[in-house]
Specification:
With 236 residues, the chain is mostly helical. It has 8 helices and no strands. The longest helix has 67 residues.
């Protein structure tokens, strides 16, 4: 028995139904990730203009500790990164800037968790479905070859057998195409969610610059002593 015959036999014995179950399992995991990521991004949003106004009041008065406490009350990404910079305010604007960049990098990795799965599933689910279709088509041609190789019979019986064989082949092909359809159906929400979440992450990270630049502006305008110093210039 040749290698091709061995592979064909294995594929025909396994069938294409396991591909559908596999795609279903992948789809359930993707739905769980989509819901979890949506809840995560929803909790990191905030009223940036209002938070910036309240933070500016503390920074203008040199109340860095109070500013950190205010930021700690918020679960937003911008507040977390700004607080990381204020904790190193006594070391100067450069140190605060580096601290906020480090916090931003850490938060980006947290925000992007699970997105690689969605992107991979969106790119490969149609190919998994196509693999199931190929298995089904192999089975259909095997069925067709078996029927054409069968010995002929009398007129009416031969016509009836041919019709039954044709229906069996068409049924096999239709069943095989379901796998491709399911693969595309699984890929579409994964791709849509991946693109949406990428834009959401970019929006969240760009929003952090509102508070980060505000912190750096007050630290750069101060005397460099940070929370323990005299605060911004002009305080006498």
């Amino acid at each position: 028995m040749s290698t091709v015959d061995v592979v064909k036999r294995v594929l025909l014995q396994s069938g294409a139904s396991w591909v559908l179950w596999f795609l279903g399992a992948l789809s359930l995991v993707s739905i769980a990730i989509i819901v979890e990521r949506w809840l995560c991004y929803r909790s990191t949003g905030s009223d940036l203009p209002g938070m910036a106004r309240r933070l500016a009041v503390h920074l203008a008065a040199g109340r860095f500790d109070a500013a950190i406490e205010q930021l700690a009350e918020s679960k937003s990404l911008a507040a977390l990164i700004a607080a990381a910079g204020l904790r190193l305010a006594q070391r100067g604007p450069a140190a605060a800037d580096k601290a906020m960049q480090s916090a931003s990098a850490l938060e980006r990795s947290r925000l992007e968790r699970g997105l690689a799965y969605l992107g991979t599933l969106g790119n490969n689910a149609p190919f998994i479905g196509l693999f199931g279709t190929v298995i089904g088509v192999i089975g259909a041609f095997e069925e067709l070859g078996r029927d054409t190789a069968a010995p002929g019979a009398g007129g009416g019986l031969a016509a009836g057998a041919a019709q039954v064989a044709s229906q069996a082949v068409m049924s096999r092909i239709a069943e095989a195409l379901v796998a491709t359809a399911v693969g595309i159906l699984v890929a579409l929400p994964a791709v849509a969610a991946f693109n949406y979440f990428q834009r959401r992450i970019a929006s969240l990270l760009s929003g952090t610059e509102v508070l980060s630049n505000l912190v750096l502006a007050y630290l750069s305008g101060g005397d460099g002593d940070g929370p323990g110093g005299a605060g911004p210039r002009g305080g006498g």
